[in-house]
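Why do we bother with a discrete structure alphabet at all? Because it lets us treat a fold like text: something you can write down, compare, and reason about line by line. To make this less abstract, here is a complete entry for Glycogen synthase. Read it the way you would read a sentence in a foreign language you are learning: slowly, and without expecting to understand everything at once.
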Amino acid sequence: MKILMVSYEVYPLAKVGGLADVVGSLPEYLVKQGVEVQIAMPYHQIVEKNANHIEKTGLTVNTSELKSNYTFEVYKTTLNKGNIPVFLLKNDELIDSDDVYGGSDLGVQALAFSDAVFQLSKILKPDIVHCNDWQTGLIPAFIKTFFGDAIPKTLITIHNLGYQGTFDKYYFELTKLPGYYWERGYLSTGDMLNFLKAGIVFSDFVSTVSPTYAEEIKTEEYGMGLNDLLSKLGDRLVGIINGIDYTEYNPETDKRIAATFSIDDLSGKKSCKLALQKELGLPETDAPVVGLISRLVDQKGLDILAEAAEDLLAKDLQLVILGTGEERYENLFRSLEEKFPQKVSANICFDVNLAQKIYAGSDMFLMPSKYEPCGLGQMFAMRYGTVPVVRFTGGLKDTVKEFDFNTATGNGFGFFDYDSLELTRAVERALDTYHSSDWITVVKNAMKTDCSWENSAGEYIKLYKRIIQSERRPVDA
């Protein structure tokens, strides 16, 4: 079985969010189970800083399904784990930003990259082209429309339905796709080209990153205008929970943290906490440290956190924030730090090493998300014995279970109703437990939670086999 996985970001070559972690680690586990995996991504400027070796393949691919021609040089590197080939598509005219998701014209960039991957797939001849997120949404449309004989099957994974890639109709008119696609709404919402909708309509199967989110996006509340379309997919919409790389994220060997520790010897975790407090200028006390690592946007539940913040900070705790995003939330956390300098550390930046220190040194990890397709933060936190406090939605519901004092089961605390009072109550339950003899049980339950890729990779292999054996899905908006 041969898979071509396509993504705009792949760790460690280029990383913005969780997608990079997924595409950077899942292939290794697929290869271990006998799947041949290749990856295609744009040749971002940052890749040169992070790749050990890049070679020029001598191949060029020219777009053919756009009205203007764009040429991409094909370079190649490998992911060290699994020695997985990564094809880098280079066009400096289009991929012209220091930012992974930047560029002078994101619509043309995504169109041309999708066409270039379509051309590359003719050379590589995969069984399945596995697309990820809206930037790759036109690839299934090009394949199903123009490929010809021996057409590969296609899968698109929705990592966050909130990002669909909508552009003026002008961008559709740059393609050679048939006009009736537009008239029948196959790749448009209203009068806008919708890249993600195109991927959903033209792919043979659609997956998303947790079973709960797969059900949620069929509803009006979470479906972002595509719920009816997604509901029509039936069993061709599949939810598979993401995993994390247990080799990369291992408290017993991690050199990025102040001290290593294990489920059998947690003494190093206390050292990590004291080191974190010292580095951030917080009092080195036993007060529980609550970590929050996030994009600072509405989706992450920061509006209800803002409502609850002063009540929470009246309690005996310290709050450590890491992230960037909307100015109002950046300013909120800066103002909280100014008002509560002994309790709040607001780090308005992106710092991978500090993130590791927060995962290892915090006692609790806060994720009050409005919606969360999967979430990786709670997985990293539990791996390091940091107890999650979450809203039970999407992948958070699938991975975090409320601690039950009677049975000593459960690995965290949470709430269902999207409400600041419910958030406060969940934190209070965690704080009460922190000061009890049950806390060590919750910590160990969290560390025992299996969030590795082993099981999820097996689920992807089952899905790939289903896709290969399935009849082609007719195009239907």
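What the structure line is telling us, in plain words: The CA atoms of residues 216 and 235 lie 15 Å apart. The longest strand covers residues 71-79.
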